[in-house]
Amino acid sequence: MSKLLSNNKFRIALLLIAALIAASYSIYKTQSTKLVDKEVYSSFNSSMKEISENAAGGFADQQELVKFIESWADERSLEYEEDKYGNIIFNKPAVKRKNNVTPTLIAVSMNYETAADDAGVLAAAAAIAASDVESGQRTVVFFNNEQALAKGYQGISSKYITAKTKVIYLDEGSTTYLSTGSFQQRLSEISIPAAMEDNPCDTAVKISITGIRTGIPGPGIAKQPDPISALSSLLTRLKSKSVDSRLSSLEIGSSGNMYPVSLEATITLNSYNLASFTAYIDKRIKAWNKAYGSDFEELSYSYEVIENEESLPEKVYTAKTTDKLTGILYTVRSGAYRYAASDSIPEGKEVGDLYGYNCLLDIQTSESLIVIPVLIQGSNDSFTDRIFNDNQAAVRLYECSYSQTSLTEAFSNTKNKLSRTFKSTHDKVADDPVTDSLTVTTDNYFTPCSYLQAKNSKADIIHIRTKGSSASDIANTILCYIKAKGNTSIFK
C-alpha cells in the first residue's frame, strides 16, 4: 500500500515539474516574441486618430504633424533629428555585441493629408523607435511625403541606406502582405495654347465642388470623386448640344501628386440654353451624391446662376480654346487599366488585374496657356508607354503638346534574404501561424521603395502593407527580426 502511495506521489511530482517547465517556456516565449509595447502603439494610434477625426478636420498642415511626432518623442526623451528635407530620423547605434549585424531602416511616409489612414503604420514606427530591444544599428525614418512629392525620400542622406542595409517600408491598405516590387511612375504635362475674348453670352453658371478628401493615386482611383471629370461632363454636354458657351475661369484644388480636392469654374452661355443646362447639372449632382455621399460626408456639389449683367465675366476663353479643353478632357481621363488576354502578363498576375493608372492632377490656367499635369503609373516600361502614347495621340488630335516631365523607375528586389527571413520570423511569432501567414507578392501601384532603391541599388528592400490592427503585429515582427536577424531558433 505504501509503495502505491509512493508511486502516486512520484507521478504527481513529475506532472508538477512538467507543468512548471511548460509554464516557464510559455513565459519565455512570450517575453522573447511579444516585443512591441502595446501601450506605446495604442496611445500613439489613438491620439493620431483623435486629431484626424476632430471637428477641425485633422492636422492643418505638414508642420503640425511634424510637431505632433516630435512632441511625442520629447515626452519620452527619445533622440532624433529633423533634417533639412523635413524627415524625422530616429537613429540607434548597434549595441556593442551586435556591431557586425547588418543595419535596419524602417520607413514610413509622413503626409498630413493622409494621416488618418496612415495612423496604424505611424504608430508602428513610433513603437519601434521607442523600443529598447537590443539590435544592430536601427534607424526609423518618418519621411516627409507631403502631397506625395517625395521631398524627404529624394533628399535623405545616402549614409542611411548602404549596400548592407535592410530596408522595410510600411504603409496601410485593405490587406496585409509582403511585396518585393511595385510600379513605375511618370509625370507629364498637356499644354493647350489659349486665347481670351470679350464675353459674348448673357448668362453664366458658377460651379463649385468641395469637401473631397485627397489620396495617393492607386487601386482606389475608381472610387475617388474627380472634380476634373465633373467639369469634363459639363463641357461635353454643352458641346454635344451645340450650345454656344465659353469657359471663363477655372480653379482646381490641387494636392500635388495626389487626387485633386475641389473645383470652382464659371461657364458662360445664353439664357435660352440655361434651363436645359441646369437640369443636367441637377442630375449630375444627384448622381454624385448617390455615388460618393456615404464615403465623403462633407462633399458638396453646387452651382449658382449669374444673370445680372454687371456680375457677368468680362473676359472668357475663346470658343476654340474651350473646344480644345473639352475634347482633351473627354479623351484623356483619370482611370485604371487592366490586363487583357492579349497582353504579355507578368508572372503572378492574370487577366483583369491592374497594370496601370492615369490621373489628371490639376488644370492650371493663364490667359495664354492651359496646363494639365498628368500622373501615370504602370507595372513596367511597356505599360506606362502604352498609357503615355494613348494620351499623346489624343492631345495631338487637338493640335496641342504633351511631354514627360519626370520618370521614377519601378521598384524590383531580386534578392530574397530579407523577404525570406522576415516572412519566416513573422510566421514563427504570429499568434496563429496558419491564418496569419504572410503572403509574398508584388504591388499593383507605385511605392516610395523606388526612391529608397535609387539611393543604393544594392540595399535589400521590402514593402509591408498592413491592414488595421495588423500594423501592431508587423511592428512586433520587425522587433523580433532585428533582435534575431535570421536566428529564428530562439523563437521555437
- Fraction of residues in helix: 25-40%
According to CATH, what is the topology of the largest domain? Aminopeptidase
Largest sheet: 8 strands, mixed
Residue stretches low in confidence (pLDDT < 50, at least 5 long) are: 17-31
CA(first)-CA(last) distance:
43 Å
Name the average pLDDT: 92
Question: How many domains, in number, for the residues?
Answer: 3
Strand order of the largest sheet: 1-2-4-3-5-22-6-21
- Shape, principal axes of CA atoms: elongated
Indicate the CATH architecture of the largest domain: 3-Layer(aba) Sandwich
Query: What is the alpha-carbon Rg in Å?
Result: 28 Å
Q: Number of helix segments?
A: 12
CATH domain class of the largest domain: Alpha Beta
Number of strand segments: 22
**What's the name of the CATH homologous superfamily of the largest domain?**
Zn peptidases
Proportion of beta-strand residues: 15-25%
Structural class: alpha+beta
Give your account of this protein's structure.
This protein is α+β, with helices and mostly antiparallel strands and 492 residues long. It has 3 domains: 1-33; 36-183 and 411-491, Aminopeptidase (3-Layer(aba) Sandwich); 185-408, Alpha-Beta Plaits, CATH 3.30.70. The protein has helices at residues 2-33, 38-52, 62-75, 115-130, 151-155, 227-240, 274-292, 319-331, 381-397, 417-429, 449-455, 470-484; strands at residues 81-82, 88-92, 104-110, 138-144, 166-172, 177-179, 181-182, 184-193, 196-198, 203-210, 246-253, 262-269, 300-306, 315-317, 335-338, 354-360, 364-365, 369-378, 401-408, 411-412, 440-441, 460-466. The chain has an 8-stranded mixed beta sheet with strand order 1-2-4-3-5-22-6-21, sandwiched between helices. The protein is elongated, with a radius of gyration of 28 Å.
